[in-house]
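G.,

No rush on this.
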Amino acid sequence: MVNMRKIAMIGCGFVGSASVFSLMQSGLFSEIVMIDANGARAEGEAMDISHGLPFAKPMNIYAGTYDDIVDCSIIIITAGANQKPGETRLDLVEKNVGIFKTIIPEIAKRNCEGLLLIVSNPVDILTYTAIKLSGFAPNRVIGSGTVLDTARLKYLLGEHLNVDNRSVHAFIIGEHGDSEVAAFSSATVSGVPLNTFCELKGHFHHEEATRKIYENVRDSAYQIIERKNATYYGIAMSVRRICECIIRNERSILPVSSLVQGEYGIEDICLSLPAIVGADGVEQIVPISLNEEELGKIHKSAEELRAVADKVLS
């Protein structure tokens, strides 16, 4: 039986540990099990995070094994090789698919009834890999997708317009990577079309401004990795947000990576589109309006992911 107050983190590097730290502060869970190929690392991270519990809510955070995941509501996977300076997310694919071929069977053979949340990169390929190897229903396997990219887009648009970024409604869709697409044509600021709001604020060079903002979003990870060798705080907050939607059954719309089966004419590949996320995972993909250029780009993104998936999973 699933314990909705228990989750597992597989992979206790920078992203996994930062995510557990964020989840500890959220108060959503009473039990977090941390699993890593390096057992001592998992123990050390669990100890360190647990020492902050007197300032948070009561919970049990500990290093465990795959046997501890059976009743988890969410099994989060951040395990994998890290992206290095100058390396794309897709450059990681063969190494991390190989790692998933050891992790996912361990989960599958324990008949877990919870959801899988894939965070490792390249997240779209690994989400697709997890579906194929686990035998889980596709709605139960979610990738963190472009939730972070979308947050970066909202942040940068808020800075550009000098407005609260929480009032910006816009999505990055497609691959979590170099072929991702900014859906500017459907973007609004509290219901006002983006270009109209820009003009209200005295910005009229829309094409140049949106291009620069898109490039900054797309290249954010590279810029951070160049400076500090890894990204982990932003994605940790994204993991927390996805978990909130699941545990509270919010049915919020997030651009998670999930199996696309017909939307925009795309079939049988995982990429990010806005989707209703709740206790059952991905309940429904929400096909937002795209202009002709954006539609062409989302098809190109899907084609690139399909080529990689066919290569590594054939």
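When you get to it, here's the other one too:
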Amino acid sequence: MHYELSELPNGLRVITESMPSVRSIAMGLWVDTGTRDELPPEAGASHFLEHLLFKGSERYSARYIAETFDAIGAESNAFTSKDNTCFWARLLDQDLPVGLDLLAEMLQRPAFRPNEIDSERQVVIEEINMNDDDPSDVAFEQFTKAVFAGHPLETPVLGTRESIRGMSRDDLNGYWGRRYGPPSTVLAMAGSIEHGTAVDLASKLLGDWTGGANDHRFSPSDPPAAVRLTQRETEQAHLVIGGTGLDRFDERRFAFDILNHILGGGMSSRLFLKIREERGLAYAVYSFRLAHADTGAWGVYVGTTPDQAETCLGLIEDEINSVIEEGITDEELERAKGNMRGGLAISMEDANSRMIRLGRDELSGAPHLSIDERLARLDAVSATEVLTVARAILRGRRVMGAVGPFKDGDLDRWVA
């Protein structure tokens, strides 16, 4: 990995990585604002804006944007997280000026036409409805609310039906004006691109943009043990159990990634083998971790029939306790490292993956590690370090998000 980084006079950063073997470019305009930065009346504003910016500006209509991207065979979309928002496109290298012109215009001069706000308001509400119809999504949302209770990360990315319905044009325009500016934006590109070309084009299309830098409400999270239950007469119970984890910059994150893989990160993981392969209790069971600038979380998801929920939770508890008390084997350690080496190498062959890594790391202030540097960090992890981080993190207070035909209190003992 070799990247080049420049900063324009207005504070916008341009970071690129050249991949001479490809003809395409993946680019993203990353804005350092997300759900965690919203005020209570703005809940869901970051995601709502993600939709609205594609509705166009006074210069370009939504139809023109869509037809122009389509005419050059580009893929374009956006995504919002609790930390940031990214507007991206993948296109042929010769079409970069066209694609960046569209994205730059969207970010700098959104129209916020009242009729388009109202139509897109209903689209966002339908997205909320769709997620609410997926019980696994609901279980994860309940887990997130529990593990980040009282923290800025608690708010759902989509907002609520009430907040979206109540959001005015002035609210949206005010949030955009307050949070969208060049010092808080990164233009990341990977693929068939020369850095000088990218900087020149960014200067032409984004160099006159003005605005200040963003700040954030950073603090550790310390949630109480809790079960957030959504009662539904479902055929399958959806359970997410876990607790507070590591933040994005914690040096123990490489050891914890290995621990996560061994516990429930693949088809040879302990939870997959025990719960699915040996007992046939679930189709889906896996562990995961969430990392933010100031805090993080870890968890295990399982979907199973309601009358097998207690059995699955008991097996999850057994495997967590086994890791805490006995650690991992040398065989598990080497298998996890091998899997992660291969996954890292494969992901870095894709221009979009490289662009995402560049943009996210630059925006968050994380170090830009090369593949060799990441592999060295990974290879240096010992079984003792994995055991140490397991005991430090997995022994903490638990929370659970659950969906199923349970009564209040049925699952409380698993987080007590």
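The longest helix spans residues 114-132. The CA atoms of residues 270 and 319 lie 7 Å apart.

Enjoy the weekend,
O.
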